[in-house]
Specification:
The chain is mainly β. The chain has one domain. It contains no helices and four strands. A four-stranded antiparallel β-sheet has the order 1-2-3-4, with no helix packed on it. A hairpin with a 4-residue loop joins β2 and β3.
């Protein structure tokens, strides 16, 4: 489930998303999934033409392409309602 809200200007795009993530970690000793992560989170991205996060490592090949400039994440929640606690 992804929902997008986009504001476009000449050199900057602001994108707000709601993302659902479902991950499970496999325990090789127990041969089962031991840690599920099931969360819905909201993230915001700022994209700019020609410059982005990857520019500090490599110069952009094409300055006209949109690149992620900043990722804005909310602070972690103190409790996670869908997380199961397993006893070992």
């Amino acid at each position: 489930m992804n929902r997008y809200f986009i504001i476009i200007e000449k050199t900057e795009i602001f994108v707000s998303t709601t993302e659902y993530r479902y991950l499970r970690w496999w325990n090789t000793k127990e041969n089962s999934y031991t840690y599920p992560y099931r969360e819905t989170n909201k993230q915001q991205y700022i994209l700019r033409k020609g410059g982005g996060i990857s520019c500090s490592i490599q110069p952009p090949k094409d300055k006209r392409k949109w690149k992620v400039y900043e990722i804005i994440r909310p602070y972690p929640r103190t409790s996670i309602p869908n997380r199961r606690v397993y006893k070992y």
